[in-house]
């Protein structure tokens, strides 16, 4: 009976370590533990029979680590999903010349351009508005049926998870292409202008215009990104579901 609560708790806790919002350093560890324990207590009576393993044996330790890793990989899908918006902000900041405007992020232990933090917050709100967090928890619950405890970890499609890293760059570039092309046209225009009028101080004129054009692209992006980002969220959640053997 203890195992029916402990193994689900390990898998849920592994997912909550890296999941957006819950995996943030500002969320106390106690909150994550209590949430994982509450869900495990609710799921315990409904799960298939768990393996009978001695609680103080090496097999129990390996099984706990296995469940932590499965939950970690499931939560990693959502972490990659939200980093699409962070990468989008980085690409647009570099095109605008705002890459030097860096803000330290103590929650994640890194430094990102301010625009990346802005887009990351926007993407998180879109994800919550689409009830993506409820769908993700539902997939975690279904994982105990689709990939029962004790099935193993090496039979999972691990290459599919690795390919999501490439998908991260592709999705962020897809969202940033309109702004990148607009900024490229601005740079080409000022390049032609500098050749036509060499005496013109292109730096004093080009940087403010590039900045204004970049801010206009950001304004237009905030109105067009939600519909595209919803498709990205659906793709990430579908990949998360298929990773544990579900069918789309």
From TrEMBL:
Keyword Nucleus: no
Cleavable signal peptide: none
Membrane topology: Multi-pass membrane protein
Keywords for the protein's UniProt record, in alphabetical order: Bacterial flagellum, Cell membrane, Cell projection, Cilium, Flagellum, Membrane, Transmembrane, Transmembrane helix
Top-level taxon: Bacteria
Principal subcellular localization: membrane
Pfam family, one: Bac_export_1
Residue ranges crossing the lipid bilayer per the database entry: 12-43, 118-144, 165-190, 202-222
Keyword Membrane tagged: yes
Localization, UniProt: Cell membrane; Bacterial flagellum basal body
Recorded family membership: Belongs to the FliR/MopE/SpaR family.
Classification via NCBIfam families: fliR
Function comment: Role in flagellar biosynthesis.
Protein name according to UniProt: Flagellar biosynthetic protein FliR
Organism, as annotated: Shewanella algidipiscicola
Organism ancestry: Bacteria, Pseudomonadati, Pseudomonadota, Gammaproteobacteria, Alteromonadales
């Amino acid at each position: 009976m203890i195992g029916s609560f402990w193994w689900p708790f390990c898998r849920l806790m592994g997912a909550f370590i890296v999941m957006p919002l819950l995996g943030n350093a500002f969320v106390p560890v106690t909150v994550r533990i209590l949430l994982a324990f509450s869900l495990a207590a609710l799921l315990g009576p409904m799960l298939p029979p768990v393996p009978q393993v001695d609680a103080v044996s090496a097999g129990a330790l390996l099984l706990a680590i296995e469940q932590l890793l499965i939950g970690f990989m499931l939560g990693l899908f959502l972490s990659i999903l939200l980093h699409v918006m962070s990468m989008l902000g980085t690409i647009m900041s570099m095109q605008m010349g705002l890459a030097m405007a860096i803000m330290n992020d103590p929650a994640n232990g890194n430094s990102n351009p301010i625009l990346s933090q802005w887009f990351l917050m926007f993407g998180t709100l879109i994800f919550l508005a689409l009830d993506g967090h409820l769908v993700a928890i539902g997939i975690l619950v279904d994982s105990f049926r689709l990939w029962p405890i004790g099935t193993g970890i090496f039979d999972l499609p691990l290459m599919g998870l690795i390919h999501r890293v490439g998908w991260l760059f592709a999705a962020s570039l897809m969202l940033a292409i309109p702004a990148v092309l607009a900024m490229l046209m601005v740079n080409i225009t000022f390049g032609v202008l500098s050749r036509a009028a060499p005496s013109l101080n292109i730096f004093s004129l080009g940087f403010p215009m590039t900045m204004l054009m970049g801010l206009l692209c950001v304004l237009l992006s905030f109105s067009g990104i939600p519909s595209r980002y919803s498709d990205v969220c659906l793709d990430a959640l579908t990949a998360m579901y298929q990773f544990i053997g579900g069918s789309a």
